[in-house]
Each structure stands twice: as structure tokens, then as C-alpha cells.
């Protein structure tokens, strides 16, 4: 009885100390992490529209798993931050679409798929093949990297559908 | 001398990956590029040294029956704290390493060294063991990732971990037409690992055979001296 009490209390104390240390580190780092994330987000939005002064965050409607955030650039243009599946970790990208359905800008933030194959979705050739097209019409995927690029194209279609449904 | 021997044991003779077969899962997954290899092994070294020191410090009061759960709580807390610190103060490093940092918790090198070494030795020796084993792990990762990156992409490069767009060096050794992209896949990891592990095993056998021969020679010498 005494033994089991000793064991229980010892483990509880170790867990409590570890928990305390975690809580302390969490308190210390949370504000910095949040600030970093906000700054990084603003930074990546600036890549698409360097001249825009402010990006208004738009509240999400419906329950999309791929649309992470929406920002408004001007009266007719919206930036979608999307996260889509891929071969391994998938792609995080931003796409700017206006209410006419024009695909204005595309920028891949990260791709966690096979280096040299899936990561082609972050390259300029893919970007060039998308920009200037209609976002709700068929878009070219990358041959040889279909598993990574198809979800991106589907994500763009989803964003276009979202504009049609909620933002017009 | 003994201390030095403990410290260098992890480099080749008792290399955690190629000789003790610890932490193979992470080695196979991470060894695709030099950048991943270095980032992962630095994080592992920090956690390994700290966890070895803490576990060694409480080794005399830790009840034997619950030592494993105690180790796991300590290791998990350490990894999480380090992950939070990296996210806060080196966000670029965090995006580069991503999921590899939390995966350190399940890296069996750390629990393995806690059980095999830190629970039986003093704090200083344990820290040294952690550092030595960590360097061994880093060595293993570097060798594997250099081979795999070279065969899969034909390029050896290393980018600044705090700013991935800034290349420190980049050399193309194999022309793009002759690369074997299979080596960036898990199957390439297994091939590379098997060949390197076989090499280390051969080296160890060689050392053993040499030691045996020496023993024999010494015994013969003694016998001869006696007879004379």
C-alpha cells in the first residue's frame, strides 16, 4: 500500500513539474508566435499585392476544409488562403480571384510533397499557366505531378465557387 | 581516457543508427536533404543532452517500477518546450523542420540512452554520452542524406536554416539526366541504410578479429616466455 502510494505520488509530482514548465514556456511563447504568424501572413499577402495598403479579413461562411482564410483587397478582389492535400503533406497556397471569376494571382506558400516532383506547384511555370485564366473553367495540371497539382486546381475551383455563392 | 572512450563510442563503434539500430524510423524519413539532416540532428542533440542530464539527476530517487513513464514525461515535456521556443524565436527553422520536431519524442535513441546510460551514471558523464550519441546520429544522418540527395537530385546544397531562400553552397555533381529519383523515396532510404549498416558491421567484425589475433599473439608470447 505504501509502495503504490509512493509510486503514484512520485509520478504525479514529475508530471506536475513537467506540466508547470510547459505552461510557463507556453505563456512565454504564445504572444510571440501569434505576432510572427500575423506578420508572416501579411508578408505573404504583400507578395501578391505589394501596392495594397491593408488586407481586410473576411469571415468564412459554409464549412470548407480547404479554405483557411479570405482577405479582401478591394471591392471586387479577394485572396483565398487554401490548404489542399497532395502526395504527402500537400500544398498551402494563395489565390486571388475577383467577382468576375478571373484568376488574378497565384502564389504557393509551401509544398510538402516529393522534392523536384510535387514541389513543381511552387514553380513559376505552374504560376504562369494559371494566372489570367478563368478560375471556374478547366485549368492545366502538371503532367508527372498530377497528385500534387490536381488538388491545387480543385482548390481554385472551390474558391471560385465560393466567390460565386457568397461574395458577389 | 575512459570518459573519452564513452564520448567517442557513438561516432562509429556504437553509432546509434548503424550499430545499435536506434532511431531508424526518423533517420529513414528525414535523410532526404542535408538541410533536414542538420536541423533534425541539432534538435535531437539538444533534447538528448538535456534529457540525459535531468534523468541522471533524479536517478537515485526515481522508483524502479515507474522509471519508463517518468522518462517519457520528461522527454515529451522537453521536446514540446523546445518546439515552442523554436516556433517563437526561429520561425523559419520551424517551417523548415515542421513535423520532425514533435517526432523527436518517439526517437528511441533518447529513451534508449536514458535507460541504458543516464539512469546508471552521473550527470556529467550522461551529458557527455548524450552529446557523443547525438553527434553519432548527426554523422549517420549527414552520410545518408548526402548519398540520397546526390543520387536523387544530382545536386548537393545547403541553405541557411533561418532563411531558406539563401543558399550557402550548391554544386551539381551528376547531370540532371542521370539522377535516380527513387533515392528520395523510402525505398532509397532502405537501400542506403542497409549498405551503410553492413559497412559498419564489417568494420566492427574487423576490429573484433584484430583484437582476437592480438590476444592470441600475446598468449603465444607468454607461453614462449614461460618455456624459455
Descriptive overview:
The complex is a heterodimer of chains A (168) and B (228). In chain A, a hairpin with an 8-residue loop joins β1 (56-58) and β2 (67-72). The mean pLDDT of chain A is 88. Chain A has 2 domains: 1-48; 56-167, no CATH class. Chain A contains 3 helices and 5 strands. Chain A has a 5-stranded antiparallel sheet, with helices on both faces. Chain A is α+β, with helices and mostly antiparallel strands. With 228 residues, chain B is mainly α. Chain B has helices spanning 2-9, 24-30, 34-57, 67-89, 91-97, 108-118, 123-153, 186-227, and strands spanning 155-159, 167-172. The radius of gyration of chain B is 21 Å and the shape is flat. The mean pLDDT of chain B is 85. The chains are: A alpha+beta (168), B mainly alpha (228). At the A-B interface, α1 of A face α4 of B. Chain A: InterPro entries: FMN-bd, Ion_transpt_RnfG/RsxG.
The total count of helices of chain B amounts to 8
| Major pleated sheet of chain A | 5 strands, antiparallel
Low-confidence stretches of chain B: none
How many discrete structural domains of chain B? 1
Structural class of chain A: alpha+beta
How many beta-strand runs of chain A? 5
Number of helices of chain A: 3
The greatest inter-chain interface is formed by: A-B, 25 and 29 residues
Termini Cα gap of chain A:
71 Å
Which band does the percent of strand residues of chain A land in?
15-25%
Quaternary structure of the protein: heterodimer
Total strands of chain B: 2
Give the overall silhouette of chain A: elongated
Strand order of the largest sheet of chain B: 1-2
Topology summary:
The complex is a heterodimer of chains A (168) and B (228).
Chain A: H1 2-48, E1 56-58, E2 67-72, E3 77-84, E4 91-98, E5 103-111, H2 124-130, H3 146-167
Antiparallel strand pairs in A: 1-2, 2-3, 3-4, 4-5
Chain B: H1 2-9, H2 24-30, H3 34-57, H4 67-89, H5 91-97, H6 108-118, H7 123-153, E1 155-159, E2 167-172, H8 186-227
Antiparallel strand pairs in B: 1-2
Helix pairs in contact in B: 1-7, 3-4, 3-6, 3-7, 4-5, 4-6, 6-7
Keywords (chain A): Electron transport, Flavoprotein, FMN, Phosphoprotein, Signal, Transport
Signal peptide (chain A): 1-23
Organism (chain A): Massilicoli timonensis
Amino acid at each position: 500500500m505504501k509502495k503504490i502510494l509512493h509510486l503514484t505520488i512520485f509520478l504525479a509530482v514529475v508530471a506536475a513539474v513537467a506540466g508547470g514548465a510547459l505552461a510557463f514556456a507556453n505563456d512565454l511563447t504564445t504572444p510571440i508566435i501569434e505576432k510572427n504568424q500575423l506578420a508572416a501572413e501579411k508578408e505573404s499577402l504583400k507578395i501578391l499585392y505589394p501596392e495594397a495598403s491593408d488586407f481586410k479579413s473576411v469571415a468564412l461562411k459554409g464549412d470548407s476544409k480547404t479554405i483557411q482564410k479570405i482577405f479582401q483587397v478591394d471591392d471586387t478582389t479577394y485572396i483565398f488562403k487554401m490548404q489542399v492535400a497532395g502526395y504527402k503533406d500537400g500544398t498551402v497556397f494563395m489565390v486571388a480571384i475577383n467577382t468576375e471569376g478571373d484568376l488574378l494571382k497565384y502564389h504557393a506558400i509551401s509544398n510538402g510533397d516529393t522534392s523536384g516532383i510535387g514541389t513543381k506547384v511552387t514553380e513559376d511555370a505552374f504560376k504562369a499557366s494559371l494566372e489570367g485564366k478563368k478560375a471556374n473553367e478547366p485549368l492545366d495540371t502538371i503532367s508527372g505531378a498530377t497528385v500534387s497539382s490536381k488538388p491545387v486546381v480543385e482548390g481554385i475551383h472551390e474558391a471560385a465557387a465560393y466567390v460565386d455563392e457568397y461574395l458577389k | 581516457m575512459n570518459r573519452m572512450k564513452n564520448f567517442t563510442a557513438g561516432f562509429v563503434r556504437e553509432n546509434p543508427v548503424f550499430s545499435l539500430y536506434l532511431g531508424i524510423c526518423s533517420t529513414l524519413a528525414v535523410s532526404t536533404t542535408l538541410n533536414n539532416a542538420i536541423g533534425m540532428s541539432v534538435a535531437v542533440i539538444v533534447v538528448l543532452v538535456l534529457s540525459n542530464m535531468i534523468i541522471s539527476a533524479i536517478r537515485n530517487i526515481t522508483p524502479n517500477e515507474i522509471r519508463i513513464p517518468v522518462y517519457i514525461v520528461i522527454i515529451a515535456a522537453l521536446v514540446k518546450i523546445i518546439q515552442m521556443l523554436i516556433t517563437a524565436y526561429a520561425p523559419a527553422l520551424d517551417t523548415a523542420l515542421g513535423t520532425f520536431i514533435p517526432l523527436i519524442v518517439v526517437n528511441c535513441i533518447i529513451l534508449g540512452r536514458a535507460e541504458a546510460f543516464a539512469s546508471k551514471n552521473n550527470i556529467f558523464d550522461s551529458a557527455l554520452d548524450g552529446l557523443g550519441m547525438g553527434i553519432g546520429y548527426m554523422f549517420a544522418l549527414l552520410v545518408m542524406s548526402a548519398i540520397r540527395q546526390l543520387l536523387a537530385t544530382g545536386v548537393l546544397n545547403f541553405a541557411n536554416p533561418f532563411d531558406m531562400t539563401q543558399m550557402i553552397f550548391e554544386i551539381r555533381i551528376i547531370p540532371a539526366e542521370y539522377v535516380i529519383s527513387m533515392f528520395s523515396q523510402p525505398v532509397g532510404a532502405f537501400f542506403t541504410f542497409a549498405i551503410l549498416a553492413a559497412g559498419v558491421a564489417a568494420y566492427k567484425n574487423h576490429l573484433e578479429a584484430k583484437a582476437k589475433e592480438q590476444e592470441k599473439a600475446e598468449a603465444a608470447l607468454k607461453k614462449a616466455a614461460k618455456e624459455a
